[in-house]
Amino acid sequence: MRTIPYGHQKIDKKDVEAVIRVLKSDRLTQGPMIREFEEALCGYTGAKYAVCVSSGTAALHIACLAAGLKQADEIITSPITFVASANCAIYCGARPVFADVDPKTANIKPGEVLKTITKKTKIVIPVDFAGLPCDLEEVHEIAHRNNLIVIEDAAHALGAEYKGTQAGSCKYSDMAVFSFHPVKSITTGEGGAVLTNNKDLYKALMVFRNHGITKDPGSIDEKMKDCGWYYEMQKLGFNYRITDIQAALGLSQLKKADVFIEKRRKIAAIYNKAFNGNEYFDFPEENNKEKYSSYHLYPIILKDRFRNKRKEVFLKMRNNGLGVQVHYIPVYLQPYYQDLGFKKGLCPDAESYYEKEISIPIYPALKDADIKYVINIIFRVFREIDRS
Ligand SMILES: *Cc1c(COP(=O)(O)O)cnc(C)c1O
Q1: Ligand 1: distance of its center to the CA of 85 in Å?
Q2: Would you call 300 helix, strand, or coil by DSSP?
Q3: I need a labelling partner for 253 at 20 to 30 A (CA). Which of 120, 179, 279, 359 fits?
Q4: CATH topology of domain 4-254
């Protein structure tokens, strides 16, 4: 039986041609496509600077480095996210601290952020879970009152809108991070980007992306700056460069981002209508004027009477060809984090959300017949389990 996944890329002939053009050109990496893709991302989001890298995880890592995150510092993030949002702190020797989430949206609560700030806190990494923008202005305000840097993890949110700005505009953050993994809004295979409006952060990001090496005449040895060969490694950076092959794909994909997001929103509207008033689960609220989701995910939240049957519901859906997934196991419940001393019960609303969540298929290539099929199977599964 065919499986309808929860997310999937959409690649067309133009994407393929864009990649082939680079493959036939002189430069497979460090060529002109990266700059072009970065400029297009700035155009799309409204941010001044973009630095493309090899993954969203690399983007989070260099964002933390550019923010000056060091050993013994703390960052605050959401437990309902992919592990990378917290791991980036550990890469820098810092400690992630988790703030509990809104039980409906699974986005971090500004009040919980405030409660978890300590003298060691340096960065807040809010996540736009499922593509729904978090309360970024409130988080930003709290952060700036406490001298903290905000890195918006917008890995789900390219194409989302918040208070009249595009996700990633950095109007309410110091940096924003995208991922171009195939399940995200647009793809480069693997890839990611950091956006910022701050020139110093931009310069630091560029250096950390490329081994910590700089050729900037303003910052290298005065006596050496007219030698053609000279460069300085001033920091410990990484090879987090994206290739021109990927950047060409990203540029081609970005041209279709609005069409992709429109399709996701249409699917969400069909689901919302079909699920309206059902007695089995809650589903995302309609968009409002302030927040316009990119619908990276469409999470359904089982009603309390099904909480102990989530596994049964999930497996029945899987057995009927729905490639459903659960987003996310709270990060601190992962064995690695448990070994660091994090305890169950830390963020009760996040844990409760996890126990009731199932992400159902939503992606631009989903066909109308598939949408109908998904809806039918979901109702059938709940009816069967309800009767048993
Ligand atoms: C996908 C994702 C990342 C990591 O991106 P990669 O490109 O897979 O490294 C980080 N944070 C969130 C919330 C994500 O969904």
Answers
A1: 7
A2: strand
A3: 359
A4: Aspartate Aminotransferase; domain 2 (3.40.640)
pLDDT, tens digit, for every residue of 254-283?
999 999 999 999 999 999 999 999 999 999
β-strand pairing of 121-125 with 149-153:
parallel
Residue written as token pair 């989302």 = 160
Determine the Cα–Cα distance for residues 340 and 332; give it in Å rounded to an integer: 9
Distance CA 170, CA 197 (A): 7
Cβ-contact 181, 59 below 8 angstroms: no
Same topology, domains 4-254 and 257-387? Answer is no
Tell me whether strands 165-166 and 161-162 are parallel, antiparallel or unpaired.
antiparallel
**298, HSE (Cβ side, Cα atoms, 13 Å):** 28
Mutation choice for ligand 1 from 85, 127, 242, 295, CB with most ligand atoms inside 8 A = 85
Is 192 near ligand 1, meaning CB less than 6 Å away? yes
The pLDDT tens digits for 197-236 are 999 999 999 999 999 999 998 899 999 988 889 999 999 9
Which DSSP letter does residue 241 get?
A: B
Q: Provide the residue ranges of all domains of the chain, joining segments of one domain with +.
A: 4-254, 257-387
d(CA 155, CA 179): 5
Task: Work out the burial of residue 329: count CB atoms within 10 Å of its CB; fewer than 13 is exposed, 13-18 middle, 19 or more buried.
Answer: middle
CA distance 233 to 251: 30
Residue 315 contacts by C-beta under 8 Å, 6 or more apart in sequence?
none
CA of 83 to the centre of ligand 1 (A): 8
**Position in ligand 1 atom list of the atom nearest CA 183:** 1
Q: How far is the CA of 231 from the centre of ligand 1 (A)?
A: 32
Tally Cβ neighbours within 10 Å of residue 388: 7
